[in-house]
Write a structure and sequence with these properties.
The complex is a heterodimer of chains A (51) and B (158).
Chain A lengths: L13 H16 L5 H14 L3
Chain B lengths: L2 H25 L9 H26 L3 H4 L5 H14 L2 E4 L11 E3 L1 H33 L2 H13 L1
Antiparallel strand pairs in B: 1-2
Classes of the chains: A mainly alpha (51), B mainly alpha (158).
C-alpha cells in the first residue's frame, strides 16, 4: 500500500511555489498565531503537502 | 460460460481492482508509520476486493447486452471492469406503487453500494485522521519550529 508521507510530492510550478512561500512567510510572521499552532500548520505541510 | 468469458471476467475484476485502488489512494493520505495498519488494510483491501467481486458478478449481466457482447475479447472485459459502476447505478426493477398508473420508484443496488462505500471511506478516513494527528504531534515534539520552517522551505523549492 503506497502510504507514504511523500505520496503527494509533485514538483510545484513557479506560481504554486510563490504562493506556498508567501503562505509560509505569512504563517511565520503572524503575531496572532502561537508557535504551537504555527508548528501544526507547517508540520502538516512538511508531512503531507497540505496547507 | 466459455473459457473466453472467464478470461474477460478476470480482466473485469482486475480493472475494477485497479480503479478502486486508485480512487482510495488519491483520496486518503497517511504517514509512513501506521499503528492501525491491520484495520486499515482490512477496510482498504476489503473494499477493493469487494469491487472486484462485484465487477465479476455483474459480468454475466453486462455480457447479455448485444453491443458489449460484440466487442473484442479482453477489451470487453476491460470495458465491463471500467464500467461496472454504471451497471451498479442501473435500476433493475421498480418498487410496487399504491397508484395503478404509477410503476413506482426505480430500485437498484446503487443505494446499497453507495452506503457501503460511504461507510468504508468513513472508517478509512477515521484511521487517516488519527494517524496523521499522531504523526504531526510526533514531528512537532522532535523538531523545533525554525527547523520545521526550514524543512518547509526546502520542500517548496524542490
Amino acid at each position: 500500500m503506497p502510504v507514504s508521507e511523500f505520496q503527494n510530492d509533485v514538483s510545484l510550478d513557479t506560481n504554486s511555489k510563490k504562493e506556498t512561500l508567501t503562505w509560509l512567510v505569512s504563517v511565520m510572521a503572524d503575531i496572532q498565531t502561537t508557535d504551537a499552532e504555527k508548528a501544526v500548520f507547517i508540520a502538516t505541510y512538511v508531512l503531507f503537502g497540505e496547507r | 460460460m466459455k473459457a473466453d468469458d472467464w478470461i474477460d471476467l478476470i480482466i473485469a475484476g482486475l480493472v475494477a481492482t485497479l480503479l478502486t485502488f486508485l480512487e482510495i489512494d488519491r483520496k486518503f493520505r497517511f504517514p509512513e508509520a501506521i499503528k492501525k495498519r491491520s484495520a486499515l488494510n482490512l477496510w482498504w483491501w476489503g473494499f477493493v476486493a469487494g469491487n472486484a467481486v462485484l465487477a465479476a458478478l455483474l459480468y454475466p449481466l453486462a455480457i447479455q447486452i448485444n453491443w458489449i457482447h460484440g466487442m473484442p475479447q479482453v477489451i470487453r472485459g476491460a470495458f465491463i471492469g471500467a464500467g461496472y459502476l454504471s451497471i451498479v447505478r442501473q435500476k433493475f426493477m421498480t418498487a410496487p406503487s399504491k397508484q395503478k398508473d404509477d410503476d413506482g420508484p426505480p430500485v437498484g443496488i446503487e443505494y446499497v453500494y453507495d452506503s457501503v462505500k460511504k461507510t468504508v471511506h468513513e472508517h478509512i478516513n477515521r484511521i487517516a485522521i488519527a494517524e496523521r494527528t499522531s504523526a504531526v504531534k510526533a514531528e512537532i515534539a522532535k523538531t523545533p519550529l525554525e527547523q520545521l520552517a526550514l524543512d518547509a522551505r526546502i520542500r517548496i523549492s524542490k
